[in-house]
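Dear colleague,

Following up on Tuesday's group meeting, I ran the structure prediction for the two-component complex that the binding team flagged. I've pasted the input sequences exactly as they went in, so you can double-check that nothing got truncated or mislabelled along the way. The structure tokens for the whole assembly follow below. Feel free to forward this to whoever is handling the docking comparison.

Inputs:
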Amino acid sequence: MVRRSGRRPGNQDTRTSILEAARASFAEKGYDKASIRAIAGDAGVDPALVHHYFGTKEKLFLAVMNAPINPGELIPQALEGPREHAGERLIRLAIGVWDSPAGTAALAVFRSALSNEWTARLLREFVVTQILRRAVGEIIEDQAEAPMRTALVATQVAGTMVARYVLKIEPLASADVDTIAAAVGPNIQRFLTEPMPEVFKQS
Amino acid sequence: MVRRSGRRPGNQDTRTSILEAARASFAEKGYDKASIRAIAGDAGVDPALVHHYFGTKEKLFLAVMNAPINPGELIPQALEGPREHAGERLIRLAIGVWDSPAGTAALAVFRSALSNEWTARLLREFVVTQILRRAVGEIIEDQAEAPMRTALVATQVAGTMVARYVLKIEPLASADVDTIAAAVGPNIQRFLTEPMPEVFKQS
């Protein structure tokens, strides 16, 4: 492998040390409680160096997960725009990513979460609690409903991924994105914005 | 472990040989093309002995998969009855099984399908194509729509399982079955019986 110019072996070792410390810290404490300061301490470097290499905690996390995309940018973008088509935009985004060259890596992270407790926890805390729930909160009225609506949206998005890319159930596995958006979009929309009195009467 | 009376070691060996031959045959040929006759041949026993120990091919398959339940009996039962509540009955059945003592074993089969190509193929061929699609066919009008409607139902059922039991997304993970049925049932119902002209115009 050709080493990129300007990156010395020492830097690569530092990056690796930081990533290892971050992986251990996220696994032990979860996304919320892990801190750049503590990760830097574990790696034996200055926190400024962690910021220099990775930027924010979010980006450090994405590097640890080998994430091919940044859902923290993509999901809020998809949910912006006319509220009544947010469900369709969300599933179009998901299919678009998974059908793209980055999809193989996204599938690897997802499969890992399905068989590995700490990846599952981090996917839940990061993608669902941090990003998706915040984006859902922007478009719904009653914020008390945000956690359940977010979880329900996650069932339909994760289920589409499992059926199409993991179990490869036809004709869904070969369907084009317009067909899937027409089929699944309105169901995500119900989870996002339609009244569900029987679901929320207890809350 | 105490051996049950009436089951001699020799019988146990024969059972094991049949299960091993069946596992290999299902993995190589898929559910449809595997035959009791060929499996018996591979195990070096008479086909009648396979029937004696395991009954039908379906039951042999369930034994190979260590399936804790028989979806071939449960799913058609759930879809019988008033057509307009079939979606709710289906998700109640799924949650009921997964919350029961058999749920741990069901989760193990499901996790295996998520990380293992042949388990995925068999889950797809057996549960989806053989059982769920046939049951869906019973309650829908246009049989040409059965494969896609079945795949869509599978997205919502599998997604609920992933979100509740694997990713453990709250408040869904702790919700009672009535809440989940009220939330998810109508979405499965749409996939089962509501017109979806934009999905089926191409077919």
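Residues 67 and 108 of chain A are 9 Å apart (CA to CA).

Cheers,
M.
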